[in-house]
Design a protein that fits this description.
The protein is mainly α. It is built from 6 helices and 2 strands, in the order H-H-E-E-H-H-H-H.
Length: 139
């Protein structure tokens, strides 16, 4: 059995994150010391590593809850897991497209900026124009 400090070191998570994942119901440590401190066994560490890996793939806490439920459910179908993964891929690709669009806009603005001693700045002007455009569209 491991203390929370040991579990943190062995899983690459902070004690605060371990407590947070427990509070969110993503896992529950199986042991307590006589003083009431959490104790973590190898299955707990494995679950924490699973959660960390899912977070590194960008899954939300709700999705991780679904994944851990599926992971523990040996009656699950792989189709259920694949459906969740494909939906997440769609979300990631939409975010990537949005980020790529943002980078392209900034790249274009930066290409039009002389980067010299002049006060005129196409980057600031472009951001201002977008802010005005957003204000107009929100009315």
């Amino acid at each position: 059995m491991h203390t929370i400090g040991d579990a943190a070191r062995l899983t690459g998570l902070s004690p605060k994150m371990i407590r947070y994942y427990e509070a969110q119901g993503l896992f529950s440590p199986q042991g307590r010391s006589s003083a009431g401190y959490r104790l973590y066994n190898e299955a707990d560490l494995h679950a924490l590593r699973f959660i960390r890996s899912a977070r590194e793939l960008g899954f939300s806490l709700a999705q991780i809850g679904e994944l851990t439920d599926l992971w523990h459910n040996h009656q699950r179908t792989s189709a259920e897991v694949k459906k969740l993964a494909l939906a997440h891929i769609d979300t990631l690709e939409a975010k990537a497209a949005l980020l790529q669009g943002m980078a392209n806009t900034l790249r274009t603005l930066a290409q039009h900026c002389h980067g010299d001693q002049r006060p005129e700045c196409p980057i600031l002007e472009g951001i201002e124009a977008q802010a005005c455009h957003s204000r107009t569209n929100s009315r």
